[in-house]
Write a structure and sequence with these properties.
The complex is a heterodimer. Chain A is an all-alpha fold. Chain A contains two helices and no strands. Chain A is flat and about 45 Å long. Classes of the chains: A mainly alpha, B mainly alpha. Chains A and B meet through helix 1 and helix 2 of A and helix 3, helix 5, helix 10 and helix 12 of B.
């Protein structure tokens, strides 16, 4: 649980900074799509990895 | 909500208000792992009694604290105490409810209900009774947590971890000092596939929240949406969260927990990432905000449930095989 809270707090701390940088490069509206798409790709990869490793038998 | 209003009333500049509010995240980021280790060693109930007592007293110190730096210290304390209290509560939920989706859903429902009505009634208390009313209500709320923890069976921790009461009672001041070994042990857990999956999903789940807390409001304000409507959109998010918490258990009859978690976390991010596509159509924005609140709340149930079902078992197995049971 402690590890989960640490990682969550890191996300809360990092997301506004990352989004700010992305917004500077691509513009504010595009930053929503870029961050959203990147996260979705990460979830798909995580799902495929879990399925491939069969971690939830 | 009360602290920014108090700071504004004290004439604190905007940049310092931001730093003061942000300070709440520093303690949990650095000390949550240590706090989790202390909870494991001393027992969740005992640690939570101390945390809830601090939570009940510290809000009452805000109205008598005249210096901003003292308020920053209070923010560091309350942020850490709140987060560790949440760690303790989730530890008890996974131990006592053992991954039951119905009970975890009810716990998540109560959390969402608190998030929905807490700010509203503290606002009312502030308007009618001033700073003492606002901060007093937060103290009273924490006293309710203290009462809840006190009525738990005193042997609840060693029922779950198998340690005797005597073993749980043994403690020293050294336990309160952060140990690098605890951090190494916690991060080592990421080599376990189930832990890695749950932690990665937890991290990604909060990404949508990070967007909402930062650029969501800025974007909506920029396209001409009023502050009241933005507040309403965030309330809708919370309200649908109540439904999400209770709908988790029925969903589980049709799909496996990790599949649901994948779809719900994707949904929670997608419904906030499409915000610019919706333009200034308030109905669409309300629907997206509601759907996001529903997905966030339901995903929390599956996250806690998976920690209880898979992660705790894997940690125990790993400790026995590789690191020794001590």
């Amino acid at each position: 649980m402690g590890l989960r809270v640490t990682l969550n707090q890191m996300t809360w701390f990092a997301v506004p900074i990352v989004m700010g940088v992305v917004a500077e490069i691509f513009g504010r509206e595009l930053s929503f799509y870029v961050v959203g798409l990147t996260a979705t790709v990460m979830i798909v990869v995580l799902g495929l990895w879990a399925s491939w490793r069969n971690i939830f038998m | 909500m009360i602290v920014p209003i108090w700071l504004l009333q004290q004439g604190v500049p905007g940049w310092l208000i931001g730093i003061t509010i942000g300070c709440r995240h520093i303690g949990p980021m650095l000390l949550a792992i240590h706090g989790g280790a202390v909870i494991d060693r001393l027992g969740a109930r005992r640690v939570m009694i101390v945390l809830a007592t601090i939570s009940a007293v510290t809000p009452l110190l805000y109205p008598v604290t005249p210096f901003i730096w003292a308020i920053i210290v209070l923010q560091l304390v309350t942020g850490l105490v709140d987060s560790l209290g949440w760690v303790g509560a989730q530890t008890l939920v996974t131990r006592v409810m053992k991954g039951d989706a119905t009970y975890t859903g009810r716990m998540s429902f109560c959390t969402r209900l608190g998030l929905l009505i807490g700010p509203a009634i503290s606002g009312v208390a502030w308007d009618h009774l001033g700073p003492w009313g606002g901060f007093g209500l937060i103290g009273l709320w924490s006293a309710g947590i203290l009462y809840s923890v006190l009525i738990l069976p005193s042997d609840i921790d060693h029922q779950a971890d198998g340690k005797s009461e005597e073993q749980n009672k043994q403690w020293s001041m050294r336990m309160l000092i952060p140990q690098p070994a605890d951090y190494i042990a916690a991060f080592k857990l990421l080599v376990l596939p189930t832990i890695f999956f749950v932690m990665a999903m937890s991290l990604l789940r909060h990404l949508g929240g990070g967007i909402q807390a930062s650029f969501y409001g800025v974007h909506l304000k920029d396209i001409g949406i009023s502050a009241t409507t933005i507040g309403l959109l965030i309330s809708i998010n919370g309200a649908f969260g109540l439904v999400g918490s209770l709908s988790a258990a029925p969903l589980q009859r049709y799909f496996r927990a990790h599949t649901l978690l994948l779809f719900l976390v994707t949904g929670s991010i997608a419904f906030v990432a499409i915000t610019p596509l919706l333009g200034d159509n308030v109905t669409s924005l309300m629907l997206a905000s509601g759907a996001r609140g529903w997905a966030m709340a339901a995903s929390l149930v599956f996250l806690i449930l998976m920690i209880a079902r898979y992660a705790d078992t894997d940690i125990q197995t790993c400790r026995e095989k590789r690191w020794g049971s001590g």
